[in-house]
Amino acid sequence: MNSTDDGGIREKLPPATLLDTDQPRLIRAGVACMHDVDTIRAYVAYENQHQRRGWVLRLLAKRAATLREDR
């Protein structure tokens, strides 16, 4: 899939909105809606600049790995 397949998730649910919560279910659901690695990189960059939560970064890394495998 390419970046247009995300339906503009970065616009509809930007990193500051998705990652500014302590509710893991919401973050997991948002990450599951990511369908390209470039989008995931943007969320990783945001998380690294702000809260740096290991579980969020691992979740994003796992999603990116899954997308790479599915190519």
What can you tell me about this protein's structure?
- The chain is 65% helix and 0% strand.
- The chain has 71 residues and is mainly α.
Helix/strand layout:
Blueprint: H1 9-12, H2 15-18, H3 24-32, H4 37-49, H5 54-69
Helix pairs in contact: 3-5, 4-5
Features:
65% helix; mainly alpha; 71 residues
Would you kindly provide a brief summary of this structure?
With 71 residues, the chain is mainly α.
Overall spatial form: globular
What's the end-to-end separation, in Å?
8 Å
Radius of gyration: 11 Å
Low-confidence stretches: none
Mean pLDDT, to the nearest integer, reads: 91
Strand content: under 5%
List the secondary-structure elements in sequence, H or E: HHHHH
Estimated structural class: mainly alpha
The main sheet comes to: none
